[in-house]
Design brief:
7-stranded mixed β-sheet; 11 strands; single chain; 112 residues; mainly beta
Length: 112
């Protein structure tokens, strides 16, 4: 089973920035696509951003232009840089490795 460790969440003011990370020790890291998924209270999970093994990226319309997903294969870590944060970005953010491996989630709270 793939172990994923998220870090970097917390509380930030509206308009601020935050970077969250997801690290793994899985040897197949460079060959897998990664994603960040978030879930706000009372809402369904939302696919926020994806990055392929070739570093092609895609974003939800709600975060396009504000969030950037990236990966560092040498560190087996991928990131979500979030800027111009809004209160509606408040959610638990989950990293996803491939299609079936999930981190435990990390809280991001944006105050107005």
């Amino acid at each position: 089973q793939v172990q994923l460790v998220e870090s970097g969440g917390g509380l930030v003011q509206s308009g601020g920035s935050l970077r969250i990370s997801c690290a793994t020790d899985n040897v197949g890291f460079r060959n897998n696509a990664m994603a960040w998924v978030r879930q706000a209270p009372g809402k369904q999970r939302e696919l926020v951003a994806t990055i392929t093994s070739n570093k092609a990226t895609d974003y939800a319309d709600s975060v396009k232009g504000r969030f950037t997903i990236s990966r560092d294969n040498s560190k087996k870590t991928f990131y979500l840089q979030m800027t111009s944060l809004k209160p509606e970005d408040t959610a638990v953010y989950y990293c996803r490795y491939g299609l079936n491996s999930w981190g435990r989630g990390i809280q991001v709270t944006v105050s107005s």
